[in-house]
Target: 1,6-anhydro-N-acetylmuramyl-L-alanine amidase AmpD
Amino acid sequence: MQQVPSFQVIDGQLIGARQIASPNYNQRPEQTEIQLLVVHNISLPPSQFGGGYIEQFFQNQLDWSVHPYFQTIEGMQVSTHLLILRTGEVLQFVNFNDRAWHAGRSTYLAKKECNDYSIGIELEGSDDRPFEDIQYTILAEVIRVLQAAYPKILQHLAGHSDIAPGRKTDPGPFFDWAKTRALIQQAKADQ
Ligand SMILES: [Zn+2]
Model:
């Protein structure tokens, strides 16, 4: 059983995550509380894991000539707060107090612009492959810690496809919401 780091949120940073700065963020609108958590999947190239391309992409350092797919996303400036790799390692690209660019045009409970008030978590994965058990374990623990730090997200956990239906499909059919919710409850009980 892989060790789960003891995560902690301090000043918008997740202690226990590897910090990598993305330039793709700005300020949240004034007096906007964090009240939603959005789960995504990403892999570069699609359905290929490892390689470090996602990290390069979020830092605007991806060499677009490396793979034909990269040319289809050339110049895109996006980010996420957190990325959970297949190994379970957690990377943080944007401080939680800042607005990461992960959701795009989106609506949650009739409230637009989800980037303004959400935290984005990307799982290294795809719509056509199961996620790793360690990713679920780590995700649940990270969500537990984030919910403690930002109580308004307690009831508000969504997939990218939920807030941008028709436009986005991630985290995809292989993402197991029931398992995720059960593991979050278990993480809370273990405290
Ligand atoms: Zn997404």
Observations:
- The two ends are 18 Å apart (CA to CA).
- Residues 40, 160, 168, 170 surround zinc ion (CB under 6 Å).
